[in-house]
Design brief:
By secondary structure, this protein is an alpha/beta fold. It has 24 helices and 22 strands.
Length: 610
């Protein structure tokens, strides 16, 4: 057997660079790195040697580098990914939040934190966590509950099995998620004689599991027996590349489609079968169809509580729940009849067994809903009060074309955008599995790297901006253009509204309700400009539309700051649905007592099998 002498770090980098997609691209585009002790001498030297064969990019924060990598993978519908490396200690634990985000959203991410010495000679090293009762523990054990595969590399030859296992997870449609290879720093630098065949390029194909014949027949029979079915389209539709098949299936069988956060834009909003968003942040048309449905057909969804109205949305006493999912864990949730299969394959096989079947679609309800959206998002009186988030969304919608992708993560905007944004196919990117404040700007950069041909509009509030904004500087340095619409409502406006809806007093969310000696005067324009972005403050909706248009000519990020109402929420009329947020049973506040009575009445409507 022919061998080559390399350090473990050199071997890892060479192997990673040789892992290919079916389209002939590297599965891992490259690696984000902040070096420190634990990865600079070993892995850092190996990455320098690799050069453009496996590119390295420097970020500003380990968590946000990982957020950019996650958005890149989501932008590629899980068909490509990125790696992220950090030093030991705080560099590594900074990535734990991002690992959890990738885990919840089922997105591929390779994390390579440095670790302490496997040989333990200099223990305890700088930043080492010591467990008094377990000598094998390090800070990197924090990753174990938030990754799909964890391995600690304590010998060079362990990479021969660990690396293929890591890729098997990241490219498996059912088990896809983040991987952590905790790389002991002395092992990174240790030499080993590697089989040359280990570095032969390999193509990773993403399988399409076929449905079980008995499950397929059972689900087809349930659909044929339904009079008012509805499809809940989740992110699995997009990851499967099943968008066109969903459109064909829904049209052929006249089954309306309602959307989750992850599934929104699998069908363009203009598609006649698309009734819009479902659940807590759902449209009137979608929620009416869901309430009346006698068969709920979930496709690639986890049935998260926002989608189901905390399991009070599907109100028909006769309704049956069916879940098409590549992951058996998800397919059997809440007593669903499972169809474990790839979404595109499942729709093809189901359609073949439903010849002649047609459900019903409430076209007038859809038209009425879209008309209401237009009215709600219309430009306000320029001399009136501060604009609402809905009016901001309307302005951006009018100023962009079908190529625009709206993205965000936390606060008011995810619900408002799901409710009101009218995307073309693929025109929506929301991190709402973990709803992680601070994902927005780094995520916008990662998304633009994945989809350079499309206009990326990042919606973020002032609260999320304050949590994590430094990757603006990275985007400027790398000339990655996107537009940030920063709505300033002077605090955490979304949670302030929820706090009061639950009967609580306004407290510790808006700056005016915080224990501070002076109200802050934060100049977001000056701050963003100091990082190199083009930044501007606008007052009117008309000015916002003009600045959105002007941003397209730049090769750096644009930050547009607009002050918005802190009190007005995104919903209106019959839109939206109850969300189960626990209200105190005992309180001296009459507002909480009244909210608790309302809570009990709503909770009594919950229908849940298990």
């Amino acid at each position: 057997m022919e061998t080559i002498r390399l350090t473990a770090a050199q071997a890892m980098v060479r192997w990673l660079a040789a892992q290919m997609t079916e389209e002939g691209e590297r599965f891992l585009e490259g690696i984000w790195a902040i070096f420190g002790h634990g990865n600079v001498a070993g892995l850092g030297a190996a990455l320098h040697e690799a050069g453009d064969t496996f590119p390295t990019w420097r970020g500003q924060n380990e968590q946000t580098m990982a957020h950019a990598a996650i958005a890149f993978a989501k932008g590629h519908a899980r068909r490509r990914a990125m790696a992220v490396t950090s030093s030991i200690g705080p560099g590594a634990t900074n990535m734990v939040t991002a690992a959890a985000l990738a885990h919840v959203n089922r997105l591929p991410l390779l994390l390579i934190p440095g670790d302490v010495f496997a040989g333990r000679r200099p223990d305890p090293v700088l930043q080492q966590i010591e467990d008094f009762g377990d000598g094998t523990v390090s800070a990197n054990d924090c990753f174990r509950p938030v990754v799909r595969y964890f391995d600690r590399i304590t010998r060079p030859e362990q990479l021969l099995s660990a690396l293929p296992r890591a890729f098997a997870v990241m490219t498996d449609p059912a088990d896809c998620g983040p991987v952590c290879l905790s790389f002991c720093q002395d092992v990174q630098a240790e030499g080993f004689d590697w089989p040359r065949e280990f570095f032969v390029p390999r193509v990773w194909r993403i399988r399409r599991p076929e449905p079980d014949a008995a499950e397929l027949a059972e689900v087809a029979a349930l659909i044929r027996g339904a009079k008012a079915p509805v499809i809940v389209a989740g992110g699995g539709v997009i990851y499967s590349g099943a968008e066109a098949m969903l459109a064909e299936f829904a049209t052929r069988h006249a089954i309306p489609v309602i959307e989750t956060q992850a599934g929104k834009s699998a069908l363009a909003q203009a598609h006649p079968m698309n009734l819009g968003a479902a659940g807590v942040d759902g449209s009137a048309a979608a929620n009416a169809a869901a309430a009346a449905a006698d068969l709920v057909l979930g496709i690639g969804t986890r049935f998260q509580d926002f989608t189901t109205g905390s399991w009070s949305l599907f109100a028909n006493p006769a309704r049956r729940l069916v879940s098409v999912n590549v992951q058996a864990h998800d397919a059997r949730k809440h007593g669903a009849v499972p169809l474990v299969a790839d979404a595109r394959v499942a729709l093809e096989r189901l359609s073949a067994q439903l010849d002649g079947y047609r459900g019903t679609v409430d076209a007038p309800a859809r038209a009425a809903w879209l008309a209401a959206v237009d009215a709600h998002c219309a430009a306000p009186d320029p001399d009136g009060p501060l604009p609402s988030d809905a009016q901001v969304i309307g302005a951006v919608q009018r100023a962009t074309g079908p190529e625009a992708i709206a993205m965000g993560a936390a606060g008011t905007m995810p619900g408002a955008l799901k409710l009101l944004w009218q995307p073309s196919q693929g025109g929506y990117h929301m991190e709402y599995g973990f709803s992680c404040m601070g994902y927005e700007i780094a995520g916008a950069m990662g998304l633009k790297l994945a989809r350079p041909e499309r206009e990326v509009i990042c919606f973020t509030g002032d609260g999320s901006y304050m949590m994590a904004n430094s990757e603006l500087a990275t985007a400027v340095m790398r000339r990655v253009p996107f537009t940030v619409v920063l709505t300033d409502n002077r605090g955490y406006g979304c949670i302030n509204r929820l706090q009061q809806a639950c009967g609580g007093a306004a407290f510790n969310n808006l700056y005016t309700e915080c224990a501070v000696e002076a109200q802050p005067e934060i100049d977001y324009v000056a701050h963003a400009a100091s990082l190199g972005a083009h930044a501007v403050r606008v007052v009117t909706i008309a000015d916002l539309e003009a600045e959105i248009t002007a941003a397209r000519g730049r090769d750096i990020p644009t930050v547009i700051v607009i002050e918005t109402s802190a009190t007005e929420g995104p919903g209106f009329g019959a839109a939206g649905h109850w969300w189960d947020v626990a209200v105190p049973e005992v309180s001296h506040r009459p507002e909480i007592a009244a909210a608790y009575d309302r809570y009990l009445a709503q909770a009594a409507r919950v229908r849940r099998a298990n």
